[in-house]
Design a protein that fits this description.
single chain; alpha+beta; seven-stranded mixed beta sheet; disordered N terminus
């Protein structure tokens, strides 16, 4: 064989081996999951260029989603779609065939798009509909300023597909650019680089240069203003709220610094928060660069700002290192609760951090009891096949996940655990991790090198809470409990004993009312502390729950409960109160309120309460 021929053969062989390796790497990159129709190992989206028009008159978004794609010799690419009108599709600028699969109540429909094995780009022209679940359109009366309408999206877990046709799996990460047209009097912001003031023409452009999972795509449109807290932190809110929000969240920069001191650089450039209208279904949503937050955390004394620490912590655990599937959701939330509490400890001391942790421990106990007929739902690693991933978004992922990590920390020592976590975030930055991948990493990088034996499998794969759990104690909570008992025993209330209490102490105090507490005792406490009129949403929520539990009707509390449920759409708060109505055989009372309140709730909240109360429209 001639030298040239031999050289050519070697080059071809080398290229073939590299191609085979690339194919093998691609084929093994993504894991199978049950909540997306996409087949990313065959063809996957990499970058989105979104061009949309937000129409408040028709309450629709319409436009074009153009994707840069990678294919593995595939003849089609599959996107997720739900309640969207797909008007046309192009591949590399030319019309191509597409079809929608059968509709599934949870997953929507598979959008099959024909491509060539060398197709580089697809474009989908589409429009949302009145069934689109991710979007909540608010009329002026549902906003703080009551002058202009408002729109916000909520993508987690699998709702992004209802406002953008997309491969809606957390293991798929994309960068994106967007052009958004809105009414001139309004401003648009996204989970991306954002404007600080309104444009003249109502057209806004956005860029997200770091790859994110589709559930973190987010948009809000309203008459909002921006106020900086530092050169990399600040708040958006309606004009009547923006000063309050800036004051409440004035420790944001300190939180970022504390987080960086723990686990490395903040990799998203900017950390802003937008305070949304009260119908927002969660406390907060960690959309990169722009956390969405409920106004219920604005108490006037920074007492509920652990929520901001929580959403900031997601910038590492969740956004930077993401659960590969929704069965692995605890990897997002358990780590984030742990990180949040460490931030709060760094800024406000161990007492406050332990009180927050102990309230979470109480929430976990209640959640485990609630799942006594479904113990498999108390495992950290879940099997949510044929279930809505929303079903796994509860205290198990958050508080059992936290307790697992805190127990690990106490076992190995804080210094070693911090070094391990910092390295974990750095090693897995901008990628996704399965539970099994984390356990392998844990064994290889922490437990085995230090000769530590730990019951990881029991924590992760078995129901309930293992016996070796860390024990969380709080002297302040013991004092609150003793103060309550003294009030009940002596039938007198000395308000001076509670003058310096934090929100957490009040919550613990109210939660621990004995089952035998009388309505007279409740009236005495209410008169002393004006609990029915509390401006602190967390205190109000636990007090209203106790009023329902104990059939207390003093000080017009029934009207306050109804007003609260109509005004507030935060799912945790409203579901707690509706559950109390149901638990106490007051479903008719609950439904009477719900009929008035439901229109104010986002679909995430409404779907939960529909199921809870057996509501039929």
């Amino acid at each position: 064989m001639k030298k040239q021929t031999l050289l050519y053969a070697l080059i071809v062989l080398t290229m073939s081996c590299e191609t085979d390796k690339k194919t093998e790497d691609t084929a093994s990159k993504y894991v199978e999951e049950s909540h997306s129709y996409a087949k990313p190992n065959e063809s996957v989206i990499k970058h989105l260029d979104l061009n949309i028009d937000v129409n408040f008159t028709t309450k629709t978004i319409d436009g074009t989603a153009t994707y840069t794609i990678d294919t593995n010799n595939a003849s089609e690419i599959i996107l997720d779609s739900k309640f969207l009108e797909i008007e046309s599709v192009e591949a590399d600028g030319k019309a191509t065939n597409f079809n929608l699969g059968d509709f599934d109540e949870q997953l929507g429909q598979a959008l099959h798009i024909s491509i060539e094995n060398d197709t580089k780009q697809i474009s989908v022209h589409y429009k949302t509909t009145d069934k689109t679940e991710a979007l909540q359109w608010l009329n002026p009366q549902q906003t703080a300023d009551k002058t202009h309408p408002f729109l916000f999206t909520q993508g987690q877990a699998i709702l992004t597909r209802s406002w953008i046709p997309i491969q809606d799996s957390p293991q798929i990460r994309i960068t994106y650019d967007a052009t958004v047209k809105v009414p001139k009097e309004l401003m648009a912001v996204m989970s991306a680089e954002n404007p600080k003031e309104k444009t003249v023409d109502g057209i806004y452009t956005f860029k997200m240069k770091q790859p994110i999972s589709p559930y973190l795509m987010a948009l809000a449109v309203g008459d909002i203003a921006y106020k900086a807290v530092s050169n990399r932190t600040g708040v958006y809110a309606e004009k009547s709220m923006v000063d309050k929000a800036q004051a409440e969240f004035s420790d944001m920069e300190k939180m970022v610094v504390a987080a960086e001191n723990l686990y490395g650089d903040y990799d998203w450039d900017q950390f802003d928060v937008i305070v949304l209208p009260p119908s927002f279904p969660f406390g907060g949503m960690e959309n990169p660069r722009l956390t969405f937050a409920t106004p219920t955390v604005i108490a006037g004394d920074k007492s509920l700002t652990s929520l901001i620490a929580h959403e900031l912590a997601h910038s590492w655990s969740g956004n930077l290192v993401t659960n590969a599937t929704w069965n692995d959701f605890w990897l997002n939330e358990g780590f984030t609760v742990y990180f949040e509490i460490r931030i709060m400890e760094a800024l406000y001391g161990k007492d406050r951090a332990n009180m927050i942790a102990l309230i979470g421990r109480q929430d976990l106990e209640e959640e485990v009891e609630g799942f006594k007929d479904e113990p498999e739902m108390t495992k950290l690693k879940l099997d949510l096949t044929d279930k809505n991933p929303d079903d796994g978004m509860n205290s198990i992922a958050y508080d059992k996940g936290y307790l697992f990590l805190r127990t690990l920390e106490e076992k190995v020592g804080r210094d070693k655990f911090d070094a391990f976590l910092k390295n974990y975030f750095k090693t897995n930055a901008f990628s996704t991790v399965t539970t099994e991948g984390f356990i392998d990493y844990l064994n290889s990088n922490l437990l085995e090198p230090n000769g530590i034996d730990f019951n990881v499998d029991e924590w992760v794969y078995q129901a309930g809470v293992p016996n070796n759990q860390a024990i969380i104690v709080s002297n302040k909570f013991e004092n609150a409990k003793n103060t309550l008992q003294s009030f009940i025993d002596n039938k007198t209330v000395d308000a001076s004993k509670t003058s310096n209490w934090t929100t957490q102490e009040w919550v613990h105090f109210i939660r621990n009312f004995p089952e035998t507490i009388t309505t007279e005792d409740l009236k005495r406490l209410d008169d002393a502390f004006d609990l029915t009129n509390s401006s602190n949403s967390h205190i109000a929520m636990v007090w209203y729950e106790q009023a329902i539990n104990h059939d207390y009707h003093g000080n017009d509390v029934d009207q306050h409960i109804e007003d609260f449920l109509i005004r507030v759409g935060r799912r945790w708060y409203v579901s707690t109160l509706y559950k109390a109505f149901k638990r106490n055989d007051k479903v008719d009372d609950a439904l009477a309120i719900y009929n008035k309140a439901r229109a104010n709730y986002h679909s995430v909240t409404a779907n939960t309460i529909d199921d809870l109360l057996g509501y039929n429209q």
